[in-house]
Input
Amino acid sequence: MPLRIFAQLRKQLAIQAWRRKARKKSTARLMITDVPGFLQKLEQRGIRSVVLRWPDEVPQSASAEKVCTEDVDLLIDGNGLDCAIEIAAGQPGKIKCDLYTSTGHRGTTYRKMPYYPPVLADRILSHRECYNSSFHIPDPLTHFCSLAFHLVYHKGLESGIPSGCHLETSPAPKRDYGKLLEGLACAAGIPLEAPTSLFQLHQLLKKHDWEMPPDLLVRWPKQTDWHRWLLKQQNARDELEQVKVEFAAADEAHEKEAQKLQQDKKFLVDANDRLREKLDEATNVSFEQPDGVIRTVDNTTGLVWINRGSADSLSKRITFSVYTKGHHGVARGGEDIKGAIEVTRIIGAHLAEARILSDDIFAPITPGDPIYTPLWSPGRKQIFSFAGLMDLDQDKVSDRKLLRELVAAAGAEIDNEIDDEGNRTGDGITINTKFLVIGEMPDPSEEVNLDEKARMSKILEEFKRLREEARRQGVRVVNLNDFLSFIGYKPQRRTWVPGMKIPWNLSAGAHSASLKSKVGDRSSSGQVSGAYTRSKRLLQQKSSGQTSRLFRGGAKGGY
Output
């Protein structure tokens, strides 16, 4: 009984002695025996623990304890500190153990600072494995990171590992830490450059979220030249990151401002285009000049003679629109056009014969009438760009091939073109382009088929670019109908094909609203002329029985 009381008293005194030591020192070292048994008792009480380094040097027997000269670094759960001190007091010995906790309790710190930040300490205790069925050590990755942390921030230049900067490390470290690091890196599958450096380890710890927080690094009690250099690098990196953040914010603000300016520009350009179109419609200004005049007219044969010929590089089949003498400018519209002619024969240097394609009986073609076509000018080749559906005869079918033939026959060229599939040819509109001629544009919103919708959208996108080029180069945009009127083109006869759904707008049939009005619906009204009805007014009259005097016989008028 007295021995038991003495043991309890001795245990209480040991606990009180450790606590007094803990109040004075950052790390109150334990002096115990049977370290594996001590750790097993902790595990039995539900207290997590690990041997941080050199597990092979932990003595496993009494004989090993006699020759052990190294201390053992232990990390335990801070909530079980009191229990751990009580267990240690019950088995005093000669093995020196530096006890650290995950919570940084007094007596378990490194110079009054947590040996590992609480987050990292808890990570070590959570990622561990059993060693020789005796106690726990960190798993390979955690073991490597915890050792690297110890070397970079605790040991520093004393580790003997090159610093990676201008600072010199200790030439005679106590242990071969580099060799241990290589073995742990291999076990953890971490690529490690050889020879490695403290700064490289710092970068590697940062990659695995194991670096010492900057606020802890600046308050670390053991400040050396290495820590100050590392902190300087950290501050420079933070400043660089801050600059990057500020630059990104400025770049984002600039991008938003650029987008706003782009939107404002687009709005102004669109408004300018609308105003230009309205101005063109109101004034219809044209800087084009007539290409020649009618010299002689033969209405009997439907032929005319013009003052252009071989010296002007005129060729056959070129068509001209014929204007009134009092026109308000050529290429303004169709209101001043009275007819169209086609060159049939070159007679002389400045004389050619042409046939009348169309004319107005109320304003016939007369000598002195100006003629004009945008496709041809004396001694100069004209250039055009085309976009949209090139339907020359209003049958909803592309006549692009015929249009190309008309242009080529007049000696003109096409520098840019958007075909019916949305494919664009040409190097862009230049100041040499005379007109951008646009046909009918598709409307993707009315199309259901996805492929067709994509094709239409492609045509519209290319047309927007082409129109923007024309705007920048000051090239006039005209629609296809005006262009055909300018060149004096008249559609050829069309052949009706069974099943064709295009309305057949004949030039005769139902009545028009007024003279020379636009041909509209020519479908029959359903009424039959009175000459072919059974109207009482038109019933066949009965014979009167009298014969005309022209057919009577008689003295004076007989045969």
